[in-house]
Amino acid sequence: MRTILFALSFIFALSITAQEVTWLSWNEAYELSQTDKNPKKVFVDVYTDWCGWCKKMDKDTFQNPEVAAYMQANYYMVKLDAEGKEDITYNGKTFKFVPSGRRGYHEFAAALLQGKMSYPTVVFLDENLGMLSPVPGYQKVEPFMQIARYFGENIYKEKDWKTYAGIGK
To answer: 47 and 82 in contact (C-beta within 8 Å)?
Structure first.
């Protein structure tokens, strides 16, 4: 009996800590933002297949149980391949893959990253899909959560980033 209780409590503990991120396509997130009664903000992870830091951020940051739970609750989470070949239509414009250099790039990724193509970069959008901010570079759990809360809890509407983050004190 004790073994069964131990096994059940172990399985329960695993289910609590194993928060899985549900990634959406841009089109899925866009549709939800238009149809949900209370739409969430949108978070876009702009990555490439060859980016080692992108993979590390996936594993170390996005799979962290605290990060995964917070992000799932507050954002539609989108994975966007910056070198993806599929067309994306948004606001009446069709964004396409542009063959350029060795790999090329997607116009939508370039628009979100404001032409600064570095990976990983995450992009925060408001509930109306307006740009809040692109955030370039690998982010560990604590700094990432600070940024995610800044936008997710609308702190950005009341405080500038330096005041909120305690920079320059």
So the answer is: yes
